[in-house]
Permease (Metabacillus litoralis), 335 residues
Amino acid sequence: MNKSVSPFLREFIGLGLLGLFFYLFLFVDFQEISLSIPSELLTVNTMFLSILLEAIPFIILGVFVSALIQTFVSEDFIKRTLPKNAIVAILPAALLGALFPICECAIVPIVRRLMKKGMPLHLGVVFLVGAPILNPVVFASTYYAFGSQHYMAYSRMGLAFILSIVIGFIIYLIFRKQQDQLKWTKEDLVSTTIDDGKEKVGKIKSTIFHASDEFFEMGKFLIIGAFIASLFQTFLDRTLLTEIGSNDFLSPAVMMAFGYILSLCSEADAFVAASFGSSFTTGSLLAFLVYGPMLDLKNTIMLFAFFKARFVVIFMVVVTIVVYGSIVVFQQFLL
């Protein structure tokens, strides 16, 4: 009895909190009570809502794509489609990312679902780091954000494509004998045995059920990540950043940290990067544009929730070293 009541209570409380959030957002005038609230907390509230509202549409897109994969894509199809050679398969995995206009917070559920369907770990990583950048929407936003500096858009795409392949290859070398790095819940294990029964429900209803479950599972980690990011955005002293913006070695690291903390969606981060153009080097702006979509606060929390901690830590270290090293080389020889 308790086992059947507990999930119902969790769903009821979750829906209640979600309803309260939308009620406060739509019907409560915070300006009337702002006199008694410190301005910093109001800024946190504004930043939190902006990050959340910016990310939710892409999370919805991501969970629906994930649900479609769960319902319509079989393990046999993935095994037949991917090249047998693990190294050769990295290139089509990088090209596949260019087909999906998905930001870094929406890509986590998709990669997780593909890996549950049998995609190798290193190919999932290629898709994870490449897809948020290598798509037409991000290219267009970067192209227009930098005005006459069109080389920024091409540099971003080219660098992201090469680095996604390099990162995937490194992950393959590290984890080629430990492919299963997902956290499997009891529900996941049970669902793999009852999916055939869900065919009777209908593929459309099954897709909706999977999408709703995935949304509420991902949503709580998105909210936590958005809140932490809003705290950093509010209380971080940005004047410290501009003081070292002209240093070829320090400025890329600073902008990578800035991209990690801000947790902007990749479709919009180019306009923020362009605003730093007068204070930071071109290489550091590229570091911001490449590193942020690959790794930020929002998707870090999601990664720790759904992948084993050792893999997430190694993944973060690999991405950080590869991006920073490539930017330093890029600045020395290509700029």
Observations:
- The chain has 16 helices and no strands.
